[in-house]
Fold this protein.
Amino acid sequence: MKWDEFFVTGEPMIYGAMVSIVVATLAILIGLTYFKKWGYLWREWLTTVDHKRIGIMYIISALLMLFRGGVDGLLMRGQLAKPENGLLDAQHYNEIFTTHGVVMILFMAMPFVIGLMNVVIPLQIGARDVAFPRLNAVSFWLFFAGAMLFNISFVIGGSPDAGWTAYFPLASIEFSPTVGNNYYSLSLQIAGIGTLMTGINFIVTILKMRAKGMTLMKMPMFTWSVLITCVIILFAFPVLTVALALMMFDRLFGSQFFTMANGGMDMLWANLFWVWGHPEVYIVILPAFGIYSEIISTFSRKNLYGYKSMVWSMIVISLLSFVVWAHHFYTMGHGAMVNGVFSITTMAIAVPTGVKIFNWLFTMHKGKIEFTTPMLYALAFIPIFTIGGVTGVMLAMASADYQYHNTMFLVAHFHYVLIPGTVFAVIAGFYYWFPKLFGFRLNERQGKLAFWTIAISFNVTFLPLFFLGLNGMTRRMYTYSESTGYGPLNLIASIGAVGLAIGFIILVYNIYWSFRYAPRDTTGDPWNARTLEWSTHSPVPEYNFAIEPTVTGLDPFWEAKKGGHQLYQGKFEEIHMPNNSGQPVILAILFFFWGFFMVFSWWTPAIISGIAILIMLAVRSFERDHGRHIPVKEIQETESRLRGEQV
Amino acid sequence: MKRKGFLLAVFSALVVLLSGCSSLTVLNPKGPVAKTQSNVIIFSIIVMALVLLVVYVLYIYMLTKYRASKAAPDYEPPHEEGSKWLEITWIAIPVIIVAVLSVVTVRSTYAVETVPAGYEDQKPLVIYAASSNWKWHFSYPEEGIETVNYVNIPVNRPIEFRLYSYGPITSFWVPQLGGQKYAMSDMVTKLNLVAEHPGSFMGKNSNFSGEGFAHMEFEVYATSAKEFEEWIDEVKTTASDLTEEKFQSLLDADHVGRETFTSTHLEFSPAPEGEHAGHNHGGSDEESTEMDHSEMDHSEMDHSEMEHSEHTHE
């Protein structure tokens, strides 16, 4: 392979990206060396097994990916702003909508949700860490390796260009001969293994490590949502694993699972993809429901209305999520009977989702609503998400879907579900739990300004797309002629996209400003909240709780504050904590190189790194590491320091 | 007062939106299939607007009445577990709505999947529509003619489009005549359409299929039966035969303009149906036509029957 085939050439924007990647990397390396931070980085972050730090790393990565995916989105809106625009050519546009989809779903929404899970779940159930802290670090680093592998594709070798769904035979070697879709299959595979392990880890954590007295039906709603999400992950991700493996065989080793010739079945890919892909939607939406439940209850100063039906509706949603996948391709011609069945199962999801909406509304009934920034996102979610929901019911009707399918109507629908559903939720959760991690709140004035900019711009961007879709504009068109009449609405949508970008810039500025100037919170409970995570110090000590809490009901911290219950009974004892380890990050680096060599079919280095991965696994199996114990004296010192006493 | 003003605004917005609908392609049908779909869409919009209204009214009520700034400083919100009757209400009513919509969906889906009502006793005009790269080939086997990137049809006669692809999955869509259906390389799918108004309608591939996708449009030209016959006769006298070499060169091209021929490619490059389907068991003909739609079992595949795969492009 020649060097000019290896690097993507001939595109000024990509040259610019290459230069900025090199400059940024150099700046980071020089900065770390100059400020002598290599040791700190290695000891405190790269080798950490602390769920809070892993959560923070997930969230930082997700924010970076939000930026990457957002730039993709802006470029798309820029290209579509006027008819026959020349900002991007067809190939570049195709790569950008593909990476926009993959990055936003798999490398932004998922890690953001998983990051919040990491930060909150052990604290919320009164545990000191997750069940398998080392495995948790492996999960994060595998996700990170997958994300980085996917992201270098646009400067080295070329990005995937067959859509985030990678439908065959378009994604086969015959129609996509560049390495782009090799990147797709390998980077998603590596990140997917990490996600699957996260699922297992959190199921065990939630089932086995809850505080004394916290029965299943006394778990906070976010914990419930994560438990159900992890069960979905456990059943859905293996399907993706298999599909991606078959894709890799097809593209690298000449097998014919999904190709046009020799009995390959293109629709088999579509089925496998969506058997994973539809539950995936609920993997990112159910934790969001959990986050909103916490926030709405906290800022209405009321317990969650209809707790039991909230839990049951999530269980029903998770079951239904596995029997609706064919609604993504009603138009594949599987006849009225099959389409009818899938229409009914799909519409049925509206019932439990509606139950949740009404329960949130009635949580506010007779409440004392405070309009903090996280609450504003939660409140904006209800009306906007309901539009996404009802258009979902419209799309579920097979006969009508023949007219919506593949159009901007569909694009508008899923943005109306995923942005208020997931993106608003993770931002709300970020604002809400931020003081727990860092010991101060993000500035409310700036936060509200960012909120209003984002919420209004969102509607300006995506509402016009419903009408463009009904007017026959299909998705993934890189250009359109003036005679179609799509120009004005597209221009409005593009203006909205600029507004969204401004909103996110304000949000980033808000984080920066608050780090420097925001007043520190000493209470550990700045929101006057209800669940266990607020009963410990902020920032949280590494062992989370000096004494393991005892719980008698829902909202245990609220009860304790009202004077009805003693959370911490007993005295300090030695705390058993896991040791840090460099193995997860080394393993992930090996996975990264293995994936990279596989992408380019460089077999010898691929085999060597594959063997190195196996050696790492063997090393771990023979390792004896029983962790360490924090002595009582050290706990006492930490506790009094965190209470602000002089030692 | 404020709330009434809001309701009025919502209502008037709805009226404006619905009256503006007829200018939207999908809601401006020119045939019975698209008409059925347009009716289903408008019905569902009305039902969903009512659902939205209920949610929005409750939402505004809660937000205006129970804000902290309006409450007394010592007001302590009560502890509420939930209400059995309220919860039964908001489960039962959505179930009824979903049930109604399900009936509408299943009936209309059967309606648009078969020959439209009133046209069952007419013999349908069979047209094979095949996609290759970023163009469409239309073959009229009975008339023995073939066109590229445009298709002429008679009004008030059922048309049976048989769809397949010489490459990636595409989706055949003429919004004003009816919803889309996929065209795939290893099977034939069928789409029944009728045009009830003469005119020219935009048709396109709506499923992303690579670099030239945005320009993969065709024109459907609906004329009276008499004019259609005249057009057939005219083609027969003016156009030339489609040779295998010519067809191969058409397949290889990225885009081509409009073309017309007096023979079809089906004779030397048959559609992937019956014994030529990608996944048949080598069984009888009835069995294989069934399989066109739903056969997902790929055991015992007959590789020798994959003639169409020889014509795939690079």
